Amino acid sequence: MRRDAETRGHGDMETRAAMNFVRVSPQKARLVVDLIRGRQCGDAIHILRATNKGIAPQVEKVLRSAISNAENTSSDVDVDKLYVKRAYVNDGPRLKRLRPAPMGRAYRYQRRMAHIVVEVSDE
Q1: DSSP-assigned letter for residue 9
Q2: Every domain of the chain and the residues it spans
Q3: Over the stretch 40-60, which tens digit does the pLDDT of each residue have?
Q4: Residue 3, beta-bridge partner list
Q5: Which residues 6+ apart lie within 8 Å of 73 measured at CB?
């Protein structure tokens, strides 16, 4: 996971965490990420725990990493005031695969990957 931190002005703290090359379709990951965008971090963790999707534990891991990055970069950050400022999923590379087809032919299909990014702020 990658982490970046920015301090803007006096007191505004933004941190981000990213998980790259996750073996899930970006469309499926966006369904989960859309649930937590703009929410308080505590509420977002509860939502992810209750979400019955396979990608939810990885999104929770990225969110916890962003919270941890905020704690490590600034000593005066209040974790209870953090909220998910931005959360998005980008397309990653695609693995091209072949599936056997009738009469000796082959059909191509793509296994998709995603990059998940979560930014938290205490604004």
Answers
A1: T
A2: 2-121
A3: 999 999 999 999 999 999 999
A4: 17
A5: 5, 7, 13, 15
